[in-house]
Specification:
Blueprint lengths: L1 E3 L5 E4 L6 E2 L2 H5 L12 H11 L8 H18 L3 H31 L11 H18 L10 H14 L1
Pfam families: ImpA_N
InterPro entries: ImpA_N
Protein name: ImpA-related N-terminal family protein
């Protein structure tokens, strides 16, 4: 069942066990941003939060707050690669393999598009974002539960990593 949360974000709720699942179409349909978000207050808050993560902050409620802020930024400005990389880690923590696969696909697809900020000519910035993804998102896979792996999520994740390669 598709529902709007109190914040206005769209989510799918699984009535069988009450777990939230990502709205695949919503994530994939977020427009790509061509503008630099670094002067946006929401971006700066997310940046500070992601660069100051600690075990005490990494509870589910905190990840949900980070997700809400990322989605708000995406809705306001469109999808940029830096926020997208952070969103991959957030999605892995909230939605396990499915979230990691879907957010990584959006990240990889946007990474190969020249229009997505930072522009393809900003090679050092793009390299730094990709390095952050590799150092933070890839290791997060080790903590994801094996019983939540599905063929479709693993296939989508493999396709995303291939696209990045």
């Amino acid at each position: 069942m598709l529902m709007l949360s109190p914040s206005g974000n769209r989510h799918i709720w699984d009535n069988n066990n009450g777990l939230r699942k990502m709205d695949k179409n919503f994530i994939l349909d977020i427009a790509v941003s061509t503008t630099d978000p670094r002067n946006n207050k929401e971006f700066l808050w997310i940046s500070y939060s992601m660069n100051n993560l600690s075990p005490a902050k990494c509870e589910r409620a905190y990840w949900m707050t980070l997700e809400k802020r990322c989605l708000s930024l995406f809705m306001e400005n469109g999808y940029d690669l830096q926020t997208g990389a952070w969103f991959c880690l957030i999605s892995a923590n909230l939605y396990s393999w499915e979230g990691l696969a879907l957010s990584s696909w959006k990240f990889a697809d946007s990474f190969v598009k020249e229009k997505c900020w930072p522009h393809v000519t900003a090679t050092q910035m793009r390299t730094n974002i990709l390095i952050w993804y590799i150092k933070n998102v890839i290791p997060a896979m080790q903590s994801l539960p094996d019983d939540e792996k599905t063929y479709s999520s693993l296939t989508l994740l493999e396709d995303a990593l291939t696209l990045l390669g």
